[in-house]
Amino acid sequence: MPDLVVAGNWKMNTTVSEAAALAAAVRDGAAAAPGVENVELVLCPPFVSLAAVSDAVKGSAVKVGAQNMHFQESGAFTGEVSPGMLRGLCDYVILGHSERRQLFGETDESVNNKVKAAQAAGLKPILCVGESLEQREQGKASDVISGQVRAGLEGVNDASGLIVAYEPVWAIGTGQAATPETAAEIMGGAIFETLRSLFSAAADNVPLLYGGSMNGGNAGEFAAQDCIHGGLVGGAALHADQFLQVAAAVAAAKV
Ligand code: PEP
Questions:
Q1: For this structure, is 167 an active site residue?
Q2: Is 14 in contact with 46 (CB distance < 8 Å)?
């Protein structure tokens, strides 16, 4: 089974001091929460708080991730952050989140460039894929997801360190999570099969995370599915206790 991973996407929330306090609360809570030691916890604050969060979790098992990055190493890209700038500050980077795709014009091609750049820099990409409600209603969910996974990973030869998060757009921030069965159909189907076709047996070690209104109450049902190895958590990740409840539920479901 792949590693269990629960990542918190803090989005554009928390000041630097709030981020440091939240990270410290997760760090301390994780040390006291039974079973959570079996789950890789990844905190993804805004760029400006990466250093503070990294400092707060130093010496603990809690890891840090960025929410995005540019694929170029340096240059005239005002407002952007490069892979090399993240190295040393974090281990993971979320790429292709649906908010980036919808609000900031990211394409499969730019996401693919970022995945390759992240790997080249020694960062672990959390590649996000997800269909819109319209695509689902048109019966296109599986095709859309296979396409996003294949395009996002074009030219990627090494699956080690890779994580794929299935986040149906209609479930993000809406309080309307997918059912575990719906998520498993896509994750064990379109996503796993595409990974298998790309990476053969190495696909078996790629953690697949569900994201979309996941919380401590529903995380266990998702993780009870064989093909779901954790979660990418938005709203609930802004509260240390709720984030740790998700991690505890994932750990308990996989015992
Ligand atoms: C997300 O933004 O990745 C996410 C899953 O958000 P939420 O948990 O709030 O739906």
A1: yes
A2: yes
Q: Is the pLDDT of residue 156 over 90?
A: yes
**DSSP code per residue over 82-136:** -HHHHBTTBSEEEES-HHHHHHS---HHHHHHHHHHHHHTT-EEEEEE---HHHH
Question: Is the shortest distance between the CB of 94 and ligand 1 below 6 Å?
Answer: no
State in Å: Cα 6 to ligand 1 middle.
Answer: 12
Burial of residue 200, with CB atoms counted within 10 A of its CB: 0-12 exposed, 13-18 middle, 19 or more buried: exposed
- The whole model's pTM is what? 0.98
Other CB atoms within 10 A of residue 106 CB: 18
3-class DSSP state of 235 = helix
User: What is the torsion angle, in degrees rounded to the nearest 10, for the CA atoms of residue 244, residue 212, residue 219 and residue 50?
Assistant: -20
Please give the domain boundaries of the chain with CATH numbers for all domains. Answer: 6-202+243-253 (3.20.20.70)
Asked if 113 contacts 90 with a C-beta cutoff of 8 angstroms, the reply is no
| Cα separations in angstroms, 181 against 101, 123, 141, 157 | 26, 31, 14, 30
- 55-85 pLDDT, tens digit per residue, is 999 999 999 999 999 999 999 999 999 999 9
Residue in 93, 94, 127, 214 to alter for ligand 1 test, most ligand atoms within 8 A of Cβ = 214
